[in-house]
Amino acid sequence: MKDVTQLTEGWRLRHGEELLEARVPGCVHTDLLAARALADPFLGRNETDAAWVGRRAWTYARRLDHDSGHQRTDLVFEGLDTAAYITLAGRPVGTTRNMHRGYRFDVTGRTGELEVRFASAYDEAAAVRAVTGERPNVYPEPSQYIRKMACNFGWDWGPTLVTAGIWRPVRLEHWSTARLARVRPLVTVEGETGRVELRLELERTPQGRGRTLHAEAEVAGVRAETVVTGDEAVLRLDVPDPRLWWPRGYGEQPLYDLRLTLRDDHDDHDDHDDSDDSGPLDTWHRRIGFRTVELDRSADEHGTGFTLVVNGVRIFARGVNWIPDDAFPSRITPERYRTRLTQAADANVDLVRVWGGGIYEDEAFYDACDELGLMVWQDFLFACSAYPEEQPLRGEVEAEARDNVVRLMPHASLVLWNGNNENLWGFRDWDWEGPLAGDSWGEGYYLGLLPRVVAELDPTRPYTAGSPWSGSWDHHPNDPAHGTHHSWEVWNRQDYAEYRASVPRFVAEFGWQAPPASATLRRALPGEELAPDSPGMLHHQKAEEGNDKLNRGVARHFPLPEGDFDRWHYLTQLVQARAVAAGIEHWRAHWPVCAGTVVWQLNDCWPVTSWSAIDGDGRLKPLHHELRRVYADRLLTLQPGADGLVLAAVNQSARPWRTTVTLRRLDAEGATLDEAVLDVAAGARSVARLAVPASLVPDERSAKEFLVADGGDGGDGGDAGNGEGRLRALHFPVPDKDFAYPRPRYDVALEPVPGPGDRVDVVVSAHTLVRDLLLQPDRLGPAAACDSGRQTLLPGERTRIRVHGCGAVGIQDIRAALFCVDVR
Residues 124, 396, 422, 626: which is the catalytic one? Predict the structure, then answer.
């Protein structure tokens, strides 16, 4: 049977004349940090002082001794970052130039000093650029000339920390006769039967050529076997009445163990070595889920659709964009993946898009998505650049695509392959066409090579050429009426109310910035007197004119606070939550014309002001709580439009929703001016839209009136802080700075929560209108968290906020952590 030896210990990193202990998997930066040879680049402005690391060559080394008794020994690297020259006992083993694929080298009978010499990524990129010629890029870094995580070179939310190292596991595999070189499970459902077509490819030793082998597979109690005389075979397994895998919110996520065993059952072992032949030659195991997935891109009266259909059910995708969770991806543990993706699920997210400027994530990421019911939209790794299609890149791109399609296709959560991020759009709108002058720029990948690879290897899943992409050059690539759309004009130039100006078919990117939690800032910027434009704050703001856009977004609604950082911090986080909610509420209210929103972005890779809902230290921003509300199965929203004010009841659950909604037109002091009760009925997976009676609509110029809609049966995630399962929608006709808010007055009480854990309930009782009350729990303690985000209380209402991890706190501590709208 195949033996595997993990090579995690004994590595050294050469740093000048020193030999540092190296951790594998890892990277140069993390080894230098461990040796105290580098200051933490996440703190202060240390990132600048770490730039030299990415411009040097580095060597990893260890002794390699092995005596397996097998016919063949392979040295297997799951990931090398990036351009490497590998030697063993001074003799060449191989070269690599791609971070995104694995490598296997025959080292049978060879021992001695193993060295992996990494060239500077900048030097490798320059050498490739000299061959291919110049190509446009959104950023002034050479990411398109090297198959490496693009955001290593910096992004508008990420640091420039150009890594090198053995970033994924490395091992020796000892084997005889034959091994399973590639296994592709094509999983489908036909009628009441789950079908698995298991396609396998073998690699044989010279001694194993011509031998008749046996392959056996099993799933859900069903077995199949075949005789293998060549290097390829197919096994088919039909599973009667399998339980279907569903996205979260639509059903359960049953997973089945699929096992494959390769055997040599010959009695004659004269040509074999003396190793134990009693076991199988090789085994393979994955978990699969039975489900169907389609992408409906049919044309209709609104344009060209883009709707995911799972098990025959059309889905409004409640999505988030995912970036690498650490600038040094080798530090991301399975537990950290699980935590972050559970946070996504807790926000009622059902789709995670793995963005094309990052990495194909670790198996632990996709395993967690399988179990949590999070659909995965997987980008191929091209982002915001024109990519040469000549060698040496073209061969690497194809090898990388084949490697990762086969690796990831067993995962039930994977529902879509996407060719690139914004490059088709960039060619049309970013002044690329002239400088390219007919040179290749990636179109051949997105419209030729990649769809061919997916069709050959994984025909059970849809492929789309890019995001955004209208489906063909017949329409503008970012046409909101056709296919996927990226909505960035609003953040860059407009007020968030402008999200309501259009109904794209599928919003694959949109978002609004906010700084991270206060405790995250204070850890990342030690000793700095925080201000929006303090040195560290500006360094940890990577977006072009980012602070100007933040301030402009606040100033449209509130007086900009001068000299009050805490107030500015609250308002920027509040506007982020409001902005994203405005877009999602509007687009969900137009289902099924709009079939999904994918918020930019779920997470961060370091402490930074960005569009994330979870900051670089893993703390939840108010946006995370807002996503939980607006992505809940049931949502009430008041939508202004050309035809007047509309109450929309969005019901994404499988059950019809009948409720009564109380509409109240109130004055600023909370007195009821008019009231009505509407009976609302929304069918399963549908939206009910009702015109608000004219007598209840506040005058559009009124600074003293607003509308409240209260309904019931919100279920999980629908609580607005005013009663379990209760939904609330608000409409204020004028910006906050023009509204006649009373001075907010409220009482605060603390109630200990019985039972284990450090928990307390903060009870807030309002005497006036209290708009967008927000508790920032990290101000009570770095580990503190709470169960709710912003909420609006009317006079006489009470809310209960549960806090844990805060330690011993008093009323004044709580008051210092509470914020609300106050425009005085």
Answer: 422
